[in-house]
Design brief:
single chain, 247 residues, alpha+beta, Nuclear Transport Factor 2, Chain: A, Glutaredoxin, 2 domains, 3-stranded antiparallel β-sheet, 8 helices, 18% strand, elongated
Length: 247
């Protein structure tokens, strides 16, 4: 997965950018302590977790842990040794979910195979090697509709290539010709494109690298994943939610 440069600086800016929601007294006290010790930092939320007296501190899509006096900040994975569940990873999946139909689907390149019944969205840069590998894997997936969002974040000519794909008579073909068949992109780049809109949306959702994949159930996966895992996630995202048992 390719990431934007300066991730450390980006995370530092997040500490200044996100307003804190109303919290309980203990959480407010922790936030006040963090402000004293870190500076002008604010956080999205603070909540107690049932592990070792820790409090979870969320900043955008990042998770830290601290104690009730904010004497330390711990960045890392919290694992429940009884269930072996990665608590931090599960929480990050929850924080990073995006309702599929809230994506600007009218600004995507739509590529359908088979009956197109399974939907997935992919934010990709034409200069991303991982994206090219993932596109080759996707050729083996049937009954799928891919909403491709041109997300040129890696180099200046990524923008030109993305515009050329969008301005092509057949956008899906132009994208696959370039990414899978190593053919040149079209030269026409003067039509109106939604690329600025997509970049702004990606920034608002903290999409920091390519490819970034969104499944129908809202789950986000940063980076290319093996085809077998992708198929499992597709099936899980399409499965109906279990019904609540009658009381």
């Amino acid at each position: 997965m390719k990431r934007l440069p300066g991730i450390a600086a980006f995370l530092a800016s997040l500490l200044l950018a996100f307003p804190a929601a109303a919290q309980d007294p203990a959480a407010e006290r922790i936030k006040a302590e963090l402000k004293k010790k870190i500076g002008e930092a604010t956080v999205d939320s603070v909540r107690k977790v049932p592990y070792g007296g820790l409090y979870e501190v969320t900043v955008g899509s990042e998770i830290f842990y601290t104690d009730e006096k904010a004497t330390f900040l711990l960045l890392g994975s919290l694992v429940d040794t009884r269930t072996r569940e990665n608590i931090t990873e599960a929480r990050m999946r929850q924080l990073n979910r995006v309702a599929f139909d809230s994506l600007p689907l009218d600004s995507a390149v739509k590529i359908a195979r088979g009956n197109g019944s399974r939907r997935v969205a992919v934010f990709a840069d034409p200069n991303c090697g991982y994206c090219k590998r993932f596109e080759r894997d996707l050729l083996g997936v049937n009954d799928i509709t891919v909403y491709l969002f041109l997300y040129p974040i890696l180099s200046p000519d990524s923008v030109q290539k993305s515009k050329a794909v969008w301005c092509a008579p057949d956008r899906g073909k132009a994208w696959l010709d370039y990414m899978v068949r190593d053919m040149a992109v079209p030269v026409e780049t003067t039509c109106a494109t939604p690329i600025d809109k997509i970049l702004e949306f990606g920034k608002s959702k903290r999409i920091q690298g390519t490819p970034t994949i969104f499944f129908e159930d809202g789950e986000r996966v940063p980076g290319a994943i093996p085809l077998a895992d992708f198929e499992k996630r597709l099936a899980a995202a399409k499965a109906p939610a279990p019904r609540a048992s009658a009381k």
